[in-house]
What does this fold into?
Amino acid sequence: MRRQPLIVRAVAAEAALLSAGLLVLVLAPVRPPSRHLPTITACAAGAGGGLLLFAVLARTLRPPRLDLALARTVPLLLARAGAEECLWRWGLLLGLAPALGAAGATTLSSAAFAAAHGLRQTRRELALRSGIGATFALLFVTTGRLVAAITAHAVYNTLVCGASSPSREPS
It folds into this structure.
């Protein structure tokens, strides 16, 4: 049997993630938060949260150099962040909140988010990714808007990709 090229598998995995996120958003039997901030305020909080998260973890306030190659990946990073947040916050966090409360649902959805971001992680990496997930969850819970978590996730991922880009000039 012939193996599929890596790019085909990667595209299929991305398509599956995006489809799953959309299905959860549309079909999950959850109740949206009844109290929420205006969308523009939630977007600003998300952008600030993503930037702050990057600054804390990267230990710098200086953002990485964003180049054309990175700019081309931003739509995919945004779509992927949207799909993940639909799964983890809209589906899992809101789905668990009636049984576990906001704190329990945030903790469990953040742990699941961390576990899904790497099969072989050290305890430190798992704790770090749980903290990242908790940051996105807290933005969602405090603003009542999924767009806050999506924006934070997309900003954070864009900055991480920019910082790890091979075209980045040494400082």
